[in-house]
Design goal:
Layout: H1 15-38, H2 45-52, H3 56-63, H4 66-79, H5 91-98, H6 102-131, H7 135-160, H8 171-181, H9 184-193, H10 198-213
Helix pairs in contact: 1-2, 2-3, 4-6, 5-6, 6-7, 6-10, 7-8, 8-10
Amino acid sequence: MNMTPVKGRAQPRTRRAEQTERTRRRILAAASELFLSRGYAAATIEAIAAKADVAVETVYGRFGSKVGLLNAILGPAISGTGEHTSVLDRPELAEIRTCSDQRRQLQLMARFSRAILQRTDQLHRILDTAASSDPKAAELRQADRENRYQSQRTYIDILLASGPLRDELTPEGAQTTYATLASPETYAFLTGDRGWAPEQYEHWLADSLTRLLLP
């Protein structure tokens, strides 16, 4: 009897793989809870391992360090998919691309950016705290900023495909404007220090982008 698997047919996950994934998720859940409740410094690998009911060596083996854990939590939070995927692959971006009205595009972009910032607000605060004392966390923060900045350039390119920017504004200038208004720091100030609701921030972002970017 021919027992060769049919090509193209997804093979079931092994019991070992399923156990590995459950362990990974348990560690990340423990890390998330302790980062939020204790802060980055106090959330030791030992405490995370104990809460996840795994050996300390297992945490180090899977993630390498606390920065590795934070990165494994932050990436999926940014994408909103539970996985490390690009925000540029999100269906919201496809909707924005198909829209031909620049003002409506900016409204949709503001909604999209607000959702990301709202999901990652506490994690970015933790990252900022970690970066002040941990060089590896500072590197992660810089990489996060650069990834966000490059994604925002794509937003500007999408906007340009539907019409011009205001007079004398370059794409690079528009990108910097977007990056400033839609940064974790600006979001944290307005929703944290000033007490704005996330929806209020979204409205302000859309209005500000429209005034500053379009003719």
